[in-house]
């Protein structure tokens, strides 16, 4: 399965080969975890309200001395009733704690470790606001999405799109920011290590399929003064990519090709030194991944290398990372396209190899989020 922390058996923070096989939780703890699920929408919105109203920040600013409900109400302008219901829920979630010298008469709140993560941890913030701004309302259509194999939740942004990728350039600014922050946070962390691997043989021509805002293409041009990159993506994304490339001074080295890679008439540039796909194939079903792989194979020479950068949930060290990826699959279900997910290593590799490519190298644990870089050649 790809788990490497066998000596961490019994520690729920780590994944081991037995993490999904044993069920050693005590009944009383299992019931508590079940209550968290039962009230999850309410607890999520409580924390969002505390962030939106500045309450979490005020509690953090108070430090170890803490801040009383009355002081919170005065500084935030929120009613004492609002302070009490939100903070009591946050106490139940261990997001905030009572200061050590608190008493019934003089209760004060301090920020807990979980609260610090929600307020300051970049990964948690990216996940939280992505869920709030992109997924939350649409998740109500989860069952309908599963039944119909369509992202039925996407209709909260309009009924004119079949996938979220068509909608990205038209999303409201706040939602667009949350989507791109989420997307870039995960892949960007692995980019430095991936660059050194991809460019160890100095490819001169690279085709970036699903290049989005040209972030990877720009990094490639900064890394190597000779490489030329072609971005293949939908028209809305290539327009943004062209603008960003020009602003960085790489208009002559970064070109674009607008098209839907799934359509029969869409062909890929022939015989580049390398194809690159970062967090792209998880946007497609296994059948579609094989179809894309076949197009890459047809456009490849024997020496062309194909690189696939993906966070594979069975290659994670930490249970929290795997959980985040498993949850992200549900975004694909109800918002993105209705038929893709975050994959395990074997199912993704098998789908790619079914299109005519053959795995030649695998690089695990790239970046803090344990990305995997898969390297393929034409079989």
Structure description:
With 379 residues, this protein is of the alpha/beta class. 46% of the residues lie in helices and 13% in strands. It contains 15 helices and 9 strands. It has helices at 27-38, 40-52, 55-61, 69-76, 80-92, 113-120, 122-135, 142-148, 164-167, 173-198, 215-223, 235-247, 286-299, 319-336, 345-353, and strands at 96-98, 109-111, 205-209, 228-233, 254-258, 274-278, 305-310, 357-366, 371-378. It has a 7-stranded mixed beta sheet with strand order 5-4-3-6-7-9-8, sandwiched between helices. A two-stranded antiparallel ribbon has the order 1-2. The longest helix has 26 residues, at 173-198. The chain starts with 26 loop residues before the first helix and ends with a strand. Residues 1-7 have low confidence and may be disordered.
- The strand order across the widest sheet is 5-4-3-6-7-9-8
**How many runs of DSSP E, i.e. beta strands?**
9
**Spans of at least 5 consecutive residues with low confidence:** 1-7
Number of helical elements: 15
Helix content: 40-55%
> What is the average of the pLDDT values?
93
* Helix/strand/pairing category: alpha/beta
Spatial shape: elongated
Strand content: 5-15%
Sequence of secondary-structure elements: HHHHHEEHHHHHEHEHEEHEHHEE
Cα Rg: 23 Å
* Beginning-to-end CA distance, first to last residue: 25 Å
Main sheet specs: 7 strands, mixed
């Amino acid at each position: 399965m790809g788990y490497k922390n066998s000596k961490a058996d019994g520690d729920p923070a780590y994944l081991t080969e037995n993490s999904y096989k044993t069920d050693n939780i005590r009944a009383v703890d299992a019931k508590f975890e079940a209550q968290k699920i039962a009230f999850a929408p309410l607890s999520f919105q409580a924390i969002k309200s505390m962030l939106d109203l500045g309450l979490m920040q005020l509690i953090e600013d108070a430090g170890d001395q803490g801040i009383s409900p009355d002081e919170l109400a005065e500084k935030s302008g929120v009613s004492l009733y609002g302070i009490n219901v939100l903070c009591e829920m946050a106490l139940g979630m261990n997001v905030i704690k009572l200061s050590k010298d608190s008493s019934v008469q003089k209760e004060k709140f301090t920020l807990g470790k979980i609260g610090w993560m929600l307020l300051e941890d970049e990964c948690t913030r990216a996940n939280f606001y992505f869920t709030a701004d992109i997924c939350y309302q649409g998740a109500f259509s989860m069952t309908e999405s599963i039944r119909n194999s369509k992202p039925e939740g996407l209709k909260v942004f309009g009924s004119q799109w079949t996938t979220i990728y068509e909608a990205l350039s038209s999303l409201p600014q706040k939602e667009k920011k949350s989507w791109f922050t989420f997307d870039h946070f995960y892949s960007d962390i692995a980019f430095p290590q991936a660059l050194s691997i991809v460019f160890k043989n100095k490819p001169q021509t690279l085709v970036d399929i699903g290049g989005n805002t040209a972030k990877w293409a720009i990094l490639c041009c900064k890394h190597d003064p000779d490489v030329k990159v072609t971005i293949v993506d939908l028209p809305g994304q290539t327009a943004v990519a062209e603008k960003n490339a020009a602003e960085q001074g790489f208009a002559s080295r970064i070109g674009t090709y607008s098209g839907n890679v799934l359509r029969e008439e869409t062909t890929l540039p022939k015989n580049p030194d390398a194809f690159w796909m970062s967090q792209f194939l998880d946007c497609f079903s296994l059948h579609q991944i094989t179809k894309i792989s076949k197009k890459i194979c047809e456009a490849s020479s024997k020496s062309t290398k194909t690189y696939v950068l993906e966070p594979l949930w069975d290659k994670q060290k930490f249970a929290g990372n795997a959980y985040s990826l498993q949850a992200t699959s549900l975004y694909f279900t109800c918002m993105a396209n209705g038929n893709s997910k975050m994959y395990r290593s074997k199912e993704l590799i098998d789908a790619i190899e079914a299109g005519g490519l053959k795995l030649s190298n695998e690089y695990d644990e790239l970046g803090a989020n344990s990305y995997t870089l898969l390297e393929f050649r034409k079989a």
